[in-house]
Amino acid sequence: MACSVSDAPSLKDLPKVATDLKSQLEGFNTSCLRDVDTNEKIVLPSAEDIAQEKQHIALLEDLEKFQPSLLKKTDTVEKIVLPNASDVAAEKNQKSLFDGIEKFDASRLKHTETQEKNPLPDKDAIEAEKEKNKFLNGIENFDPSKLKHTETCEKNPLPTKDIIEQEKTA
C-alpha cells in the first residue's frame, strides 16, 4: 500500500507535541548515551534436528515414488483354531458361576445379629498394670543424689575367755 500525496494528513490534522517535550528532544545530546554491543541471537537447528528432517523428507519422497505394481501377489491362508473340550468345559463352568452371581436372590438370606466382643482388659488388670508401671518408673528414675551419706561400722565381737573355755570343755 503506497501512500499518495492526497492520502497524507495535513499539518493541522497531525497531533501537537508539547513545547517542553519538543525543546528537550531538539536539545538531546547523543554523547550521553552508552555504547552497547548488540548480540543477535539466531537459533540454528542442531545436527540431530537436520538429520531428522532429512530422514522425514526422504521418507515422504519414497512414498511419492512408491509403485504398488512392484509388490508380489500373495495368498492369505486363514486358520481357525477351535477350542478343545477342556477349554469349552472351563468356559461353561465360568459362565454358570457368573449366571449364579447375577441371579442371586439376597432376600433368601437369614438375618443375623453380630456380637461385638470387647477385647479391653477389666479395671483390675488396668490397676495392676498402672501399679507395675509406677514401680518400674520409680526404679528407672531413681536419683542416688538424694541419699544421705552413712558410714558402715562392721562389728565382729570376739568371744570372751569364758566362752572359749566353755567351748573347749564341751
In DSSP terms (H or I, runs of 4 or more residues), the helix count works out at 5
Oligomer description: single chain
Radius of gyration: 55 Å
Main sheet properties: none
Structural class: mainly alpha
Distance between the termini: 152 Å
State the share of residues found in helices, binned by percent: 40-55%
Beta percentage is under 5%
The rough form would be described as flat
| pLDDT < 50 runs, ≥5 residues | none
Following the backbone from N to C, one meets helices and strands in this order, namely HHHHH
Total number of beta strands: 0
Q: Mean pLDDT, rounded to whole units?
A: 86
Subcellular location: Cytoplasm, Cytoskeleton
Region (Disordered): 135-170
InterPro entries: Beta-thymosin, Beta-thymosin_sf
Keywords: Cytoplasm, Cytoskeleton
Describe this structure as you would to a colleague.
This protein is mainly α and 170 residues long. 42% of the residues lie in helices and 0% in strands. The chain is built from 5 helices and no strands. The longest helix has 19 residues, at 47-65. The model has no long low-confidence stretch (mean pLDDT 86).
Keywords:
single chain, 170 residues, mainly alpha, 5 helices, flat, Thymosin beta, cytoskeleton, Beta-thymosin, Beta-thymosin_sf, cytoplasm
How is the secondary structure organized here?
Layout: H1 19-26, H2 47-65, H3 85-102, H4 123-140, H5 161-169
Short précis:
With 170 residues, this protein is mainly α.
